[in-house]
Give the backbone structure.
Amino acid sequence: MSNINEVVEVVKELCTEKSIPKNVRSVLEEIQELLLDNHKELAVKVNSASQMIENISLDPNISSFARTQIWELSSILEDLIDNN
């Protein structure tokens, strides 16, 4: 992943997954809005999004498949900050 728009696309795809609970989907939508906010620095956006992802990854109602996808998103965000 080279830019924030590609990360947003991954978040959008996760939001369409049927295996993701509604409460997690709403947090993913918040993450999407956060990442698209042009008034914040990249590091702030990524750190905030990573924290939100960590919180939803602990949800006991998430299937193992969905949890794996959420962890993958977290990894993508870490790569994004490391490459910039």
